[in-house]
Amino acid sequence: QVQLVESGGGLVQAGGSLRLSCAASGRTFSSCAVGWFRQAPGKEREFVAAISWSGGSTYYAESVKGRFTISRDNAKNTVYLQMNSLKPEDTAGYYCAADPDGSSWWRNYPYSSQYDYWGQGTQVTVSS
Questions:
Q1: Structure confidence by residue, pLDDT tens digits, 36-71
Q2: What pLDDT score does 30 carry?
Q3: Residue pLDDT, tens place only, 88-118
Q4: What is the enclosing helix (H) or strand (E) of 19?
Q5: Sign of torsion, CA 54 60 66 70?
């Protein structure tokens, strides 16, 4: 079992920045690939970014590439999502998810079904 807790969300003006954290407890988090997803009201959950267990590989949705950075500190069992140049369309609930298997993550990292463990989410609201 892996328990995930997101934090760092809030209200920010367009052009501002936020850093989200995903703190993990439970089994060996350092062996899990992690993804960030977001869901806006009335919309489907969408992939934002993902990072391999070692941090050596990262992937981003086109809509956030160049603005968001995913990173991890396995000594602290935490994954981060640094969000810069925020836009109103980034407004959503942000969720982190962990994949302990990893064997197919390289092909399936954008799909929520790849991940076994999810946090409760943190709200990000960007005002114009």
A1: 999 999 999 999 999 999 999 999 999 999 999 999
A2: 86
A3: 999 999 999 999 987 889 999 999 999 999 9
A4: strand 18-26
A5: negative
Instruction: Give CA angle at 94 (42, 108), nearest 5°.
Output: 90
Alpha-carbon gap, residue 32 to 115, rounded angstroms: 10
- Which residues are within 8 A (CB) of 66 and not within 5 positions of it... i.e. 6 or more apart? none
Which tokens in the block code for residue 95? 């969720």
Give backbone dihedrals phi and psi of 105, rounded to 5 degrees, phi first: -60, -35
Q: Which residues fall within 8 angstroms of residue 47, CB to CB, at 6 or more apart? A: 35, 36, 37, 61, 109, 110, 111, 112
d(CA 110, CA 66): 17
Q: What is the pLDDT at residue 103?
A: 80
Q: CA 125 to CA 111: how far, in whole Å?
A: 24
Average pLDDT, the chain: 95
